[in-house]
Amino acid sequence: MAPLEDWQRGTHAADGFAYPTYRRGTGPGVVVMHESPGLTHEVVAFGEELVAAGFTVVLPHFFGGADEDPRRLEAARVLPRLCVGREFTVVATGRTTPVAGWLRSLARQLHADVGGVGVGAVGMCFTGGFALAMMVDPVVAAPVVAQPAVPVPLGPRRAADIGLGTDDLLAVQDRVRAGCPVLGVRYRADWSTGTRFETLAEVLGDGFRRVELDGPGHATLTAERHPDAVEAVVAFLTERLGPTSFSPSP
């Protein structure tokens, strides 16, 4: 795995926010949004898998450490900021994350740089639902929702919420009806995803493709990486964005 020092570092500013970004690879563009506690080695390793599969990957860095091993204390330190930060939502229902505009702008810039039919967006855990918010912009052609865990599933309303305001939900439904599917990946027994996959199946119908894995686990693409999950994500990105080559590791 290449450390982040081997990635091209930049900063993207839009919609009142500015965050560091890391870019590597060639081919169709994919934005990979990290989970809590930060942009860990494991997230970078997943980004490297996509680079090896033939994609240009951009990793935004929202919070926590960068290029580090995941640490429980780091997660505890990051959580209070996520709860009070104006750019994210943690417990609110029926609301799109405020950072959605920034992410859509990043996707447009990446697409302008690399071309192609559009870009992919992969959210996981805390950022799992962000890919839905991004696909409001037609430039996002391959949204992937991996173990969406926000809002915190305390009670049936939050457990079912998919992190979209009413207008954005209607826009996402329009995109799906027009032929843009959504891929969802999770461990079947993962409590943190609540009943969001059931909500997505209800509101998106056959446009929601779900991959549900047996066994315990949460982080399908990183800490509890499952080769079937990674293979499904790469196959989806390839189908939607263009041909690449990929051989998943065991």
UniProtKB/TrEMBL annotation:
Chain ranges of the Dienelactone hydrolase domain: 26-148
Family matches, as InterPro entries: AB_hydrolase_fold, Dienelactn_hydro
One protein family per Pfam: DLH
Alphabetical list of SUPFAM superfamilies matching this protein: alpha/beta-Hydrolases
Record GO terms (molecular function): hydrolase activity
Keywords: Hydrolase
UniProt-recorded name of the protein: Dienelactone hydrolase family protein
